[in-house]
């Protein structure tokens, strides 16, 4: 059974905003039925269920549109090139709010009594990179627009969290900020509206200031997620988030990333570690998908198979010299990315495997 203790109860362990032995998902799921998806998530992720995102429903259920619907006094519409800031409320904005409302209804009915629940929003830099101002340029090119979007998002997030706390009395809300475009924002590699140039790189200190402001709105149970191989882990940690979410399968033997991982774990940062593929691995089909070792290509014991799935976590942390106890205290297994493009059966299986890897890591606590 998964431990119900918080790691702060263990002498010398880092503060952690949820239970030891937890696993979770990153948000996106396949399908269009919020009630059914909530039941799956609650069954597979009892320690840290998450408010699922179902982008398969179309405009307004996508990452950018969903978060744009939270903005206060800033509206958004869909144009051929994507989402654009509008001067008045739009049909697409109402659609995004409706989708979120239905998802929250499903969450309220299914997660009642949960001690923790995790929600996800698109971060300010990715939102500014993916939304246009009325002139057609990325909001990212206008520092004033970035400030306005960030302030509006912080206000909308506070209201969103308050709504969930009202719906689920006693449940503590974990906020995940998704920043998939942040590496491109920092590197200056995003194309301009014309496609003939790139948007000027944003300075690290400027990026950190905006992220810190949203972190303050997110509260102490905050996570920032970037699954790019160039995820700026140190910058994200300096912004003060309680945990970082990244794809551990991309770490490998990259010295720079390993050094950052070691430094941050040593400082007590908790990691949501992507370890289970977000789509079914080639060659892993049918009934064998449940019990086979994907690397050895044969049926094996459950423990051996789980140890293989856990290697993206155990190998780099082992190279860095961290004990199994430290890993159990500071690492939360997840799929490598969102599961929106997975088949229905693999999305459930990926959550199950994440949970089982968490339990395997948690054996170090017994």
From TrEMBL:
Region (Disordered): 1-35
Alphabetized Gene3D superfamilies for the sequence: 3.20.20.210
Protein name in the entry: Methionine synthase
